[in-house]
Design a protein that fits this description.
By secondary structure, the protein is α+β, with helices and mostly antiparallel strands. It has 3 helices and 8 strands, in the order ααββββββββα. The strands form 2 sheets. Strands 1, 2, 3, 6, 7 and 8 form a 6-stranded antiparallel β-sheet that branches. A two-stranded antiparallel ribbon has the order 4-5.
Length: 161
């Protein structure tokens, strides 16, 4: 009986460890090093339509237009258009588990790479978007805009691209 209980406890602890590691987002410095551009921006418009992702899958893609408040890395642009998988077309909604849903008025720090057809895509998919509230604190991550700004500067000083 003791062996069975010990084996069950070991299995549960192992499973909990695996889940915790799968959900962990990359370090902010790693995200900054891997991205071509890092901006703090506010969503001004969202247009969803059917399209194809990089793998040829037909799905709903949202073109999110954002007004850039601050550029932390890369050349400054007044606005960027970011393509996110997911959105609503008519009465059909696609929610992608590892991608954020950005609506008009929301603010976020975005770690971006150029998209093949123009515009940008988040570096690392959903981990490339850190939604922030009115006090500049991360909504789903324990980060502030100041934390991110400091990490991006440190990553740039470390010789990233």
């Amino acid at each position: 009986m003791k062996r069975t209980a010990l084996a069950l406890l070991t299995l549960c602890l192992t499973a909990a460890t695996v889940v915790a590691k799968v959900d962990a987002r990359p370090d902010v410095g790693e995200r900054a090093k891997g991205s071509a551009k890092v901006v703090l921006a506010t969503v001004t418009d969202v247009e969803a339509a059917f399209g194809e992702n990089a793998y040829g899958d037909r799905l709903i893609l949202s073109q999110v237009t954002m007004r850039v408040e601050e550029t932390m890395k890369g050349p400054h642009e007044a606005a960027v258009v970011v393509t996110l998988e997911g959105g609503t077309v008519g009465d059909l909604t696609l929610k992608v588990s590892d991608m954020p849903t950005l609506e008009k008025g929301k603010r976020a720090v975005l770690f971006l790479n150029s998209a093949p057809g123009g515009g940008y895509v988040p570096h690392g998919r959903g981990s490339g978007v850190v939604e922030v509230d009115a006090t500049d604190r991360g909504v789903e991550e324990d980060l502030t805009v100041d934390n991110i700004r400091t990490a991006v500067k440190a990553a740039q000083a470390g010789g990233d691209r």
